[in-house]
């Protein structure tokens, strides 16, 4: 039997006393000038490796934004695979933020590519979009169950325009994002691990903290991936409703405010990233039950 994603995640969270996910978004335009390399992808590679090594003691997981690698074509794919190997070697849970989905056998092909037994890039979890319906999510849920990996379904995203569609009132009453939440909860029922949480999780933005209580009520067995802290304006001080009484149940994601911390604090960029991650880890713990044990 493969290791269950949520169980493995809880072990990592407990061992590191961290609920922090650092987003690896290597934008060539934002890299510090001292990063070595003669081409943009070489500089992305160097930057990513140093950031991973610097934040590994503070973060439970890392979330790779696929777009910042895909833009470079095959060299980008090779660099992403190398960064994945580095992260796994450092004991970090790895999430690929690719927001994939489609219908029928195409969804199955996506699921095999990212979550299958023979995937060349064995990330621990993948973000997926729900807007093609529940049947489009099933291949991802099954692949994750078969391999011990995880899926994070977009439920209420952190961007300002999320309400354009996600907040629309449905015919049966209530906003669309709650209908999605109900579907995610149903899909995850068969994948609950010993820790009480499912391998099917939910993306719920930190920029809408007032919705977290209702989202938790709708999805009691889902691990929440909570992006939007830092550059997008979300605060870790408002995220307690995402967590249970033991300080588990959610991962708080921050990218630019950590990996580009040198822009605010100066000094070596890797040191600045580690210090930003350490500060954020403590703030998250203090805002949850983890800080009151």
Summary of the model, kept short:
The chain has one domain (5-292): TIM Barrel, CATH 3.20.20.
Distance between the termini: 33 Å
Unreliable spans = none
CATH topology assignment:
TIM Barrel
User: What is the total tally of β strands?
Assistant: 8
Summarize the structure in words.
There is one protein chain. The protein has about 290 residues and is of the alpha/beta class. The chain has one domain (about 5-290): Alpha-Beta Barrel (TIM Barrel). It has 12 helices and 8 strands. It has an 8-stranded parallel β-barrel with strand order 1-2-3-4-5-6-7-8, surrounded by 7 helices. Helix 9 links the parallel strand 6 and strand 7.
């Amino acid at each position: 039997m493969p290791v269950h994603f949520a169980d493995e995640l809880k072990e990592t969270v407990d061992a590191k006393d961290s609920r922090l996910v650092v987003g690896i978004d290597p934008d060539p335009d934002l890299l510090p000038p001292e990063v070595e390399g003669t081409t943009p992808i070489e500089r992305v590679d160097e930057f990513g490796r140093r950031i991973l090594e610097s934040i590994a003691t503070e973060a439970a997981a890392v979330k790779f934004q696929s777009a910042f690698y895909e833009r470079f074509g095959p060299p980008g794919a090779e660099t992403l695979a190398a960064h994945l190997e580095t992260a796994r070697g450092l004991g970090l849970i790895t999430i690929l933020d690719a927001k994939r989905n489609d219908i029928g056998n195409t969804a199955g092909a996506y699921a095999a590519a990212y979550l299958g037994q023979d995937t060349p890039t064995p990330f621990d979890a993948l973000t997926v979009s729900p807007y093609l319906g529940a049947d489009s999510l099933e291949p991802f849920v099954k692949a994750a169950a078969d391999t011990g990996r995880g899926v994070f379904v977009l439920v209420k995203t952190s961007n300002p325009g999320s309400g354009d569609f996600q907040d629309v009132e449905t015919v049966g009453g209530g906003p669309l994002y709650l209908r999605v939440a109900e579907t995610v909860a149903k899909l995850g029922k068969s994948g609950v691990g010993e820790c009480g949480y499912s391998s099917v999780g939910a993306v719920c933005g930190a920029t809408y903290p007032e919705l977290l209580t209702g989202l938790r009520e709708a999805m009691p067995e889902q691990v929440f991936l909570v992006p939007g802290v830092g550059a997008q304006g979300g605060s870790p001080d408002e995220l307690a409703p995402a967590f249970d009484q033991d300080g588990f149940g959610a991962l708080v994601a921050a990218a630019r405010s950590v990996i580009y911390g040198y822009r605010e604090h100066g000094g070596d960029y890797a040191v600045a990233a580690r210090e930003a991650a350490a500060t954020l880890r403590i703030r998250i713990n203090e805002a949850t039950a983890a800080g009151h044990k």
